[in-house]
## 1
Amino acid sequence: MPSFDVVSEVDQQEIRNAVDQASREVANRFDFKNTNSSLELDDTSITLRTSTEDRLNALRQVLEEKLVKRKVSLKVLDHGKVEEAAGATVRQEIGLVAGISSEKAKELNKFIKGLGVKGVQSQTQGDQLRVTSKKRDDLQTVMAALREGDFGIPLQFNNFRD
């Protein structure tokens, strides 16, 4: 029976490359001189630090440009609130969203059922969704509908089996 998996994954290498490129650009740009601006990446988040909120917005824009150039969806970014930090600086924590939460999985299941495509079934398996059908064309219809929908997370389709 044909099937495919709906997943939401983050390419850590591409994010690391984008953060490195953004850090290099910030180090060389004149408008960031003497602002102590920095970007730090760990496993689940990116931390932006700089002197003012305006510089923070510019820093965020540089990071987003680099992510877009590397074909990383901006939906993986979960912007935290801007916090005052020590030494009259500001910082912002940007979380990296990976995996499909149980609430999103329910929303996706409901969406797939609401399409009304006959014979299509979907079930949650951990942090991914498995969609099965007897007809391959029905699966491609579901894929197209999921691509058009906006669920707040980046969706990828893998493990397509005939």
## 2
Amino acid sequence: MDDPLAAPDNSYRWKTLDSDLNRVSRVESATMFVSRPLVGVGVSMVVILVAALAAGIVTSGGSVFVIVAAAFGAYMALNIGANDVANNMGPAVGANALSMVGAIAIAAICETAGALLAGGDVVSTISKGIVAPESFADPTGFMLSMMAALLAAAIWVNLATWIGAPVSTTHSVVGGVLGAGVAAAGFDAVSWPTMGAIAASWVISPVLGGLIAAALLSLVNFTIIYRDDRITAARTWVPVLIGVMTTAFTAYLAVKGLKKVIDIELFGVIAIAVPMGVLSALAARPLVRRQSRTLPNEEKSLNVLFRLPLVVSAALLSFAHGANDVANAVGPLAAIVSAEASGAVQGQVSIPLWVMLIGAAGISFGLVLFGPKLIRMVGNQITKLNPMRAYCVALSAAVTVIAASWLGLPVSSTHIAIGGIFGVGFYREWDAEQRARARNKTRQPAEKLAREERRRRKLVRRSHFMTIAAAWVITVPAAALLSAAASTLLFWVTT
């Protein structure tokens, strides 16, 4: 006969084993959490190594300059994916219109497509005329300077991502070229009027993006949100907003895509974009009517109508970013390849397909491995976004970039997008204050909110505002100093 005390003893042993397994599981989870960043670093090193090997193979053995520059270019592209892409996808994720996985997948596909299908086939080797090509004594000195610019820009964007600040990768490259040019040829080689225009974009870009985003949110509020019958108003105005979005993006893509085939003028762009906008608005009307048929007359229910347009706008912004900014990032690499092949420094060079592939692949891997940190910060930690507010940010970015390019204003797409988020947040604060004052006029003294209480109800996180603004201001100087140091080191190593 079994011992009656055996069961409790066995039960105790099983409980002890369960407890031990739980401890092991917690240790394994902690180990995986700690090692996760190391996986990203390891994959990044593989991407950089593959880019260097590919450069050596494609260029028939290639020189050391081209191979090392390809590694630096891949490092820069990884950092663009980790930092810059968050500006396009962050609002959609913060508004819960897209999951993190969905946002990363859409951004990776659209960024790559933009880079390869509509990316710039010609780029200024000295990054928008900052340093005159004749300032460099020989092609070797030029290639070393461009390598230093690439490395410095990548290091600075990496540091900015680490501290959680979305910065302009184009400005980082500009600062890198500036520092390398000064180190190689002195201050007289720099076009200071060009640098002044770039510095002006630090103010123009976020202010313009913020004002347009605030104006769009104000339009949404007064035409839809503050109406007694919100659903009826939405059926009228949401298709109009979709039409405006289609017009803006069609204009941009017409300029980027058709310029390789024909020289299209402003009238031609309008003739293409406006009809597309009208057709999309007409097509959206039955869809909006069907979606809104069972919606209650509440502000929250209207978010459903903006979800799909927000996702489409985020995808188009990623495509536009891939078409526009990748060329700026791999421009120094293309310049090095051209100088190595021709033995001369040229003011304009074509970007080989393999160089664009390095840029596109690097952005995709950087986004997947490191992008979620900045996407969460942009989408959730600056101000609270819903699909309506996030749509205003995305539409503001598109409209501002198009308007600025036609007016010849130097703007940064990164600064515009982040400025749009701040513009939406600050407008909400101002609007809430105005509405609180209006309500106070009709309340009894005991029911009124004190001015101090109203001031405490901030809708924008000031700490992020100061961190991002400081990072923007020091991007060009920081990248320039890093580039000058890297240039000096590279010249010392090779002599």
## 3
Amino acid sequence: MDDSMTSETTECNLSTSERLPLAGLLALATSGFITILTEALPAGLLPQMGSSLNVSDAMVGQLVTLYAVGSLVAAIPLTSATQGWRRRRLLLLAIGGFAVVNTVTAVSTSYILTLVARFLAGVSAGLLWALLAGYASRMVAPALQGRAIAVAMVGTPLALSFGIPLGTLLGTVVGWRYTFGIMTVLTVGLLGWVVAAVPDFPGQGQGRRLTLRHVFLMPGVRTILSVTLLFVLAHNILYTYIAPFLLQVGMGGRVDMVLLVFGLTALVGIWLIGALIDHWLRALVLASIALFVIAGCTLGFAGTSPIAIYIGAGLWGLAVDFH
């Protein structure tokens, strides 16, 4: 029996199962967890990284910007170019990219080299995010696809809730370089987990592939892409510079706590979305935009009030997951 027949048989067996393959889905969730940690950790360690690399906080913020640019420019062309690749090989390639770039980030003393590593990390992220939801849905029967995708995506709120605050605290205690080194070790372990627990699937056949132009011209796609771009851009700007903002208002030692509040309300947002999204999708999108505006105004006019800043961070967390 050739590889194609074996994969199709495996997919058929998984799709008719009435149980979630939690080991494989949690491996996918951990992939998302590491992706979010890699993306956002510099925001919590901005002053330490700036001092070590001899650049300003604004220049360290570009490490997040380059990550986002890498994701933006790579996601669509890479996804299109690799449609025919076997899925697990592609997933391992994306995860392995994080092991390499986080190692480079941990040891680099050059700001330019670190920028390049962050750009390549974004490329890996763009490829990985394009894989996760579809991969999870192929692992289960149609009736379980929604729950499977929810499990595979739980790494994002967990990273926001616990990973980034703990990573920020760890970076403060042992240094930001060791923190990125620890992430490399976790990533290498994840590669073994994926090989052991995540099934392989064939890529799309030539006849099933849609051109980028065809997808882009579908009704509503351009509006969705525009809204998503603007929302994520606004969120990333705020997240990137939250540490210097808190330092300016006298809460520089509370970055981890503010991010924890942000992450916990993001978890609440995930629960609300699961309960409401099937019937209130449009309302949730509008609510997320409104909440983000209110959160930004609350933070902007909070002055030195810790309570107002925590409220703003909480509304911000809700807004991100509602979107």
## 4
Amino acid sequence: MQYTFRGSLLKEGGRTFISIPFNVWEVLGQKGLIPVKVTINDFNFECKLVPKGNGKYYIPIVKDVLKIINSSEELDISFEIISHLTRINNNSPYSIENPIRKIDSIRIIKSRDGLCGQGCVAMLTGVSIEEVITLMKAKTSLSKVIEALDYYGIRHSDKMVYKLKKDQKLPKCCIINTSGHLILFYDGKYYDSSIGILEDFDLNKITGYLEIIL
């Protein structure tokens, strides 16, 4: 369902928003960060509505969007709820049913410092680190890694598992988070795109892992 209204850009500090002129809790029947597809003067983008309390919400306007729609005039605005943000996995030629490859082995792929997430994705997909960097850009975050996995059709668990329990074993394949540094575990070995293959690893350093479902 489309929700339509007219509104103006609102500046708060160094950020820009559009205030939604109705109680979102009452009209949409949802709370929290709500993923939506927004249209402003025929320009489309996706974002999550930002709650401000008591059903009041803002549409966040990032710099790239602001460059296109920046105006002191009232804007024609509409949005609709979506299940999740597609972002980089939008228009992917792959899917869970048609992944880029079947994961039956891992080849170490090196990446420079700060690109550990891209390195994990490259090793799982078998594509070059350059292609993954082009897709993900030069930023590593778990959310971006998950978007890239979805783009390539790599099946994974729905959420991270935090803190290994005593005597708990890692799944056959997973991405491990070690205080912000991501490495890949596959079939008993640890693949760190910064340094290479590790036969052993201190499990106490693991802050969480995302299972890759083979």
